Amino acid sequence: MLRRMNLTAYHSKYLAHELTRRFPSDSDEKLAGAVARAQVDLNPHQVDAALFAFRSPLSKGAVLADEVGLGKTIEAGLVISQKWAERKRRILVIAPSNLRKQWHQELKEKFFLPCAILEAGSYKEAMKAGNVHPFEIKDTIVICSYQFARNKAADVQAAPWDLVVIDEAHRLRNVYKTSNVIANTLKGALGHTQKLLLTATPLQNSLLELYGLVSFIDEHTFGDLKSFREQFANLGQDRAFQVLKERLKPICHRTLRRQVTAYVPYTKRLPLIEEFTPSDSEDRLYQLVSEYLRRDNLQALPASQRSLMTLVLRKLLASSTFAIAGALTTLSTRLKEKLRKPEPSQSLEEELDQDYEALDTTAEEWSEDEAAESLSEVDRRAIEAEIADLDEFTRIATSIEHNEKGKALLKALTVAFAKARELDAAEKAIIFTESRRTQDYLLRTLADSPFADRIVLFNGTNTDERSKEIYTAWKARHEGSDRVTGSRTADMRSALVDYFREQGRIMIATEAGAEGINLQFCSLVVNYDLPWNPQRIEQRIGRCHRYGQKHDVVVVNFLNRKNEADQRVFRLLSEKFQLFEGVFGASDEVLGAIESGVDFEKRIATIYQKCRQPDEIKTAFDQLQLELSLEIDQAMTRTRQQLLENFDDEVREKLKVRDEASKAYLDRFERLLMRLTRYELDDNAEFPDDSSFRLKSSPFPAWVGDIPLGLYELPRRTGEAHLYRLNHPLAEAILVRAKGRDLPVAEVCFDYDSHEGKVSILEHLRGQSGWLSLSLFTVEALDQIEDHLLLTGVADSGSPLSDDTLRRLLTIPGKVGAALDIPADVRRALDELIHRRQNGIQRGISERNATFFAAEAEKLDSWADDLKLGLEREIREIDRQIKEARRAATTALTLEEKLAGQKQVKALESLRNQKRRSLFDAQDQVDKQREELIAQIEAKLMQSASLQALFTIRWTLA
Question: Which residues are in the Helicase C-terminal domain (predicted)?
Answer without folding.
Answer: 409-591
